[in-house]
Amino acid sequence: MTGRHSKSVKGSTYSLTGNCRTSDRYYHVIRELTGLFLRQCPDEKRLLLHVRKAGSNRVSIAGDHDKALISYIKKTLIEALSLYTTGVKEHLRTLPLSQRLDSILRTKEVQYHLYMIEIELTNRIYKEAFRKSDYKFALIAHCLRDFRPDCRSSAGDIESVCRGCTKECFIHHGSVLLKKHAIHPYISLSIDLDKLFKKIRAEHQSVGALGIACVPELAEGMRLCIKMDISPVGIPLDANRCSRWMGQAHENSKS
Ligand code: SF4
């Protein structure tokens, strides 16, 4: 989606535009890195488990896991992706005590890099199952809306829906496009994704979810989908700029 922004947007901790005006270079790097790791570990699902293992000791891997691969992944990512996560250290240094229990807000820099590869791998693994799902829905981050008018979105059957009050709104453009592809678009406001996903899953034979959110929230949301037998695909926001990260909400983009 492109829109009003002529300059790249800067996030609280990360910006996929890096030193460029768009995120094209970022996606090129992510595809190259994923290809590189797949040459070391050709099984996409096994590689995904290793990427997740690299970020947490709690994720168990069936059978053996390759410690050398995990350390190679971490070392390669820090060298290749630090350019996109320049705000993490300062954010963590100044994070108030009261917010340190928030697992999303306290995400470490290495974990951002791992999430970036996790999102790419998850997309590759689940895109076909998503496409074939009986019911497809999208959750679009609310910070992608046009902040100039008062948003006229209203309650839909599962989440808020865009009412198209302005033509210059990313969410409006995205919603129109998604409907053309039989994907039901919603504005993501719910904090209880678990409950929301359970409800949707109970109503349909097979479900596919498209998430558009900041990197940590998207990766966690995709994990939850997999756990609940929903086929996820996701698009990370160019930056994290909502009030949760910046104290007050700033417009965002998806270039
Ligand atoms: S176009 Fe939709 S999402 Fe954008 S401000 Fe209007 S109602 Fe809200």
Annotation keywords:
255 residues; two-stranded antiparallel ribbon; 9 helices; 6 strands; globular; binds iron/sulfur cluster
Q: Which percent bin holds the helix content? A: 40-55%
* Shape descriptor: globular
Radius of gyration: 18 Å
**Structural class, from helix and strand content?**
alpha/beta
Helix count, per DSSP?
A: 9
Average predicted local confidence, pLDDT: 90
Based on DSSP secondary structure assignment, what is the total number of beta strands? 6
Which strands sit side by side, in order, in the main sheet?
4-1-5-6
Query: For the report, how would you describe the main beta sheet?
Result: 4 strands, parallel
Count structural domains: 1
Describe the protein in words:
The chain is of the alpha/beta class and 255 residues long. The chain has helices at residues 24-40, 44-55, 67-81, 88-93, 109-132, 170-180, 193-203, 215-227, 243-246; strands at residues 135-141, 154-155, 160-161, 184-188, 207-213, 231-236. The protein has one domain. It is built from nine helices and six strands, in the order αααααβββαβαβαβα. The strands form two sheets. It has a four-stranded parallel sheet with strand order 4-1-5-6, sandwiched between helices. Strands 2-3 form a two-stranded antiparallel sheet. Helix 1 (24-40) runs antiparallel to helix 3, helix 2 crosses helix 3 and helix 2 (44-55) runs antiparallel to helix 5 (109-132). The longest helix is centred in the middle third of the chain and has 24 residues, at 109-132. Bound molecules: iron/sulfur cluster. Residues 145-146, 149, 151-153, 162-166, 169, 171-172 line the site of iron/sulfur cluster.
